[in-house]
Specification:
The protein is α+β, with helices and mostly antiparallel strands and 453 residues long. The protein has a single domain, classed as Outer membrane efflux proteins (OEP), CATH 1.20.1600. It has 10 helices and 6 strands, in the order H-E-H-H-E-E-H-H-E-H-E-H-E-H-H-H.
């Protein structure tokens, strides 16, 4: 990534959709945070299992003492302790496993959201570049229209108001173009932040955007999103924790312990108070101590754990209700997107028909100009009529691009919610790749937004 930034700092970059998605998934902070949560969940599972593995510690030291000795004069000690069994730990292990499932699903959701963001940005930028080209042509037609209006005014054919109208049209076209240029600048900046490729303006590869089909839009009864699955998996994990906390009181707990100590009475008066350690009286005495065993305990009263169990139960209930609320909002949002997609499809078709009508009208005017003939029903066309027709055709084309863009954005969001965005983006890999100066997604594999193993 660093080499990429050095290779083309602030140069205009052409990038395909598949490359943009691949770079975004590698560069997204949200994806990296979700991956860190997966690592944390795996560590939590290891921690729950490792409670059964003895923890070994060692300590040692020498010194002198005076007066009554309060403890054994240990110069070296090594001990091991672990949990052997309790009724709560299996639930904590189950909770950790559910936590891993939730973290992996959340990672999938983060990757899907990042892919949706870059895909929407890319198609919007692609549309904006096409609109700018169309408006550049429209500005040329508007400038030509002003010249024609001035000539006709000087010749006394048209009143001055026609000159003002032509100038107003030119200002409108110029303003629209500036707005689109500002949009391109904003989209390029956002794409820079998503992909990590530094460029003042990106050039898209229009052919790298896969075509949409009816199969891309699933029905409203599609599967739940990974975000919803992650929410319910998290609620399951918290319910296991609550169950484990509730099974603490009155149930026996078994702990394992083992230890070795080396005792030395040198430099102490320990033998004075405990004659059994006097080497003069007991030359065969051992200064080694070894212990191993199991300890059983039964909690009778522990208000701290009781309060913790109530809090865990409340947290589990809240997580379950929050997952249910998320699911209801998800279904409502998906239904709205599905309905909006149908409406936007009709609007896009209507805009396409308007553009075709404008193109047909322009073709008719051009034919009449070439024939240089007119009738009572169809008066002779003038260069002014031609420029107005060209302006109308370009404006209808821009309107069509706007309507088509809204449909594309809605379809991308709907595909993500239906879990079909990855399949659609996979088709982008077979499209033309980005220039060699940019890293491209390897061919022969899908983009990395599938479920991690």
């Amino acid at each position: 990534m660093g080499a990429l930034a050095v290779a083309a700092p602030y140069a205009s970059a052409q990038i395909s959709l598949s490359t943009a998605v691949d770079l975004t998934l590698r560069n997204s902070p949200k994806v990296k945070m979700a991956r860190a949560d997966v690592d944390k969940a795996n560590a939590a599972l290891a921690e729950a299992h490792d409670a059964y593995i003895p923890a070994i510690t060692s300590s040692g030291g020498i010194g002198e003492s005076a007066g009554v000795p309060l403890s054994l004069p240990v110069i070296f000690n090594i001990s091991a302790q672990s949990l052997a069994f309790n009724f709560s730990q299996p639930d904590y292990v189950r909770a950790a496993r559910a936590g891993i499932a939730a973290a992996n699903l959340a990672l999938n959701e983060a990757r899907s959201e990042a892919a949706e963001d870059v895909a929407r940005t890319y198609v919007t930028l692609d549309s904006a570049l096409q609109r700018r080209d169309a408006l550049t042509q429209a500005n040329g037609f508007a400038t030509q229209l002003i010249k024609i209006a001035l000539d006709r005014f000087d010749a006394g054919v048209d009143p001055k108001i026609e000159v003002l109208r032509s100038r107003r049209t030119a200002v409108q076209m110029r303003l629209q173009k500036k707005l689109v240029e500002d949009e391109i600048s904003s989209l390029s900046d956002h794409l820079t932040r998503l992909t990590g490729v530094r460029s003042p303006e990106f050039a898209t590869v229009h052919s790298s955007i896969p075509a949409f089909s009816a199969a891309d839009i699933a029905n409203q009864n599609g599967p739940d999103s990974d975000g919803i699955k992650a929410a319910f998996a998290d609620a399951t994990a918290k319910s296991y924790v609550a169950r484990g906390d509730a099974r603490y009181r009155w149930l026996p707990q078994l702990a394992f312990s083992a230890g070795y100590s080396r005792i030395s009475t040198v430099g102490t008066n320990y033998a004075l108070y405990y004659p059994g350690f006097d080497p003069a009286r007991h030359p065969d005495i051992s200064y080694n101590s070894l212990d191993i065993g199991f300890q059983i305990s039964i909690p009778l009263l522990d208000l701290v754990h009781q309060a913790k169990a109530r809090g865990s139960a409340a947290e589990a209930a809240r997580a379950r209700f929050e997952a249910q609320d998320h699911k209801m909002e998800f279904y409502e949002g998906r239904l709205k997107l599905k309905n909006a997609a149908g409406e936007l499809a009709d609007r896009a078709e209507l805009a396409s028909l308007d553009r075709d009508l404008a193109q047909d009208q322009l073709d008719t005017i051009e034919l009449q100009l070439q024939a240089n003939a007119g009738t009572t029903e169809n008066p002779q066309m003038t260069p002014k009529d031609e420029q107005n027709a060209r302006l109308q055709e370009r404006q209808r084309y821009v309107d069509f691009l706007d309507a088509d863009l809204q449909l594309l954005q809605t379809e991308i969001s709907l595909m993500r919610q239906n879990g079909e965005l990855g399949q659609w983006l996979h088709a982008a890999i077979t499209q033309p790749a980005a220039p060699a100066s940019l890293p491209t997604a390897p061919t022969g594999r899908s983009l990395p937004i599938s479920h991690p193993q």
